[in-house]
């Protein structure tokens, strides 16, 4: 078998559509669980087969209480064993360990399954990100595999590359993040005041979102996205970006337009935020994920300064 015959797998916090997964030969994610407001437990509806995207966010907007849970350990084991039996190694990219226990669940499976199948390997990448961050790492892994990179080389490459992964975007309502313990109540209150668009990146240290500052309205946020991209976007090929939204398609399209103006040769993928992320983010997010040439600074200090200097230029 060829050296690059291995699969790329993620949990349901990866937000690539069925078409995009097929295009890049990425497996269907292992679903996390979603507790519906009526108390029933469901697997995350990865391809919106049970409920539409719009209905899900409408219900969240009405403050209906959905909750997320980890992927079932048995389910992870089942998927891994299926590929191992076929003689295939696996690169798995998970939701940030700062936000969830999914990474540890995959590590547990790795120990059990590699003992049972000593000739096979499961390489687990803790993305330290969510949503489009997981998506972009999976697409990059697919491109590397296409070039003939082995699973082990690819894993090592992704471990370094993920440190250079930025998010720039807006979120309309911080109360969802506050409710799930991602930020404090005070931050949620002040960040959700009329017209204020909090802009966040991700900290490599915590694997959690770090609010960089606030834009006043959408127009200001578009300018910030453009300036941040000009300052930070990698010069290396392939220039790859993923833009994700939770019912903010207009803003997402505008981000993509900006991205393609700044980097005309870049591949920019568009995604809708799935249930596993959406429960904790709520409606109102548009975020662009991209790589820079050097790692995100410690606790995003440099990125905060950059945003402040962009705001000061007005």
Give the overall pLDDT as a whole number. 92
Measured between the Cα atoms of the first and last residue, the distance is 58 Å
Given the C-alpha coordinates, what overall shape results? globular
What class do helices, strands and sheet pairing give? alpha/beta
Proportion of residues in extended strands: 15-25%
Record the strand order, biggest sheet.
7-12-10-11
Number of helices: 12
Number of strands: 12
Strand/helix succession: EHEEHEHEHEHHEHHEEHEHEHEH
Low-pLDDT stretches? none
Largest sheet: 4 strands, mixed
Indicate the radius of gyration in whole angstroms.
Answer: 19 Å
- The share of residues in helices is 40-55%
Give a structural overview.
The protein is α/β, with parallel strands linked by helices and 314 residues long. It is 41% helix and 21% strand. It contains 12 helices and 12 strands. Helix 9 packs across helix 12. The longest helix is centred in the C-terminal third of the chain and has 16 residues. The N and C termini lie far apart (58 Å). The model has no long low-confidence stretch (mean pLDDT 92).
Please name the defining characteristics of this protein.
globular; single chain; 12 strands; alpha/beta; about 325 residues; three-stranded parallel sheet; about 40% helix
Helices and strands, with pairings:
Layout: E1 6-10, H1 18-23, E2 33-35, E3 41-43, H2 53-61, E4 67-69, H3 73-85, E5 89-94, H4 102-116, E6 122-126, H5 132-146, H6 151-161, E7 165-171, H7 175-179, H8 185-191, E8 196-202, E9 209-216, H9 217-232, E10 240-245, H10 249-262, E11 267-272, H11 275-281, E12 285-291, H12 301-312
Parallel strand pairs: 1-5, 5-6, 10-11
Antiparallel strand pairs: 2-3, 2-4, 7-12, 8-9, 10-12
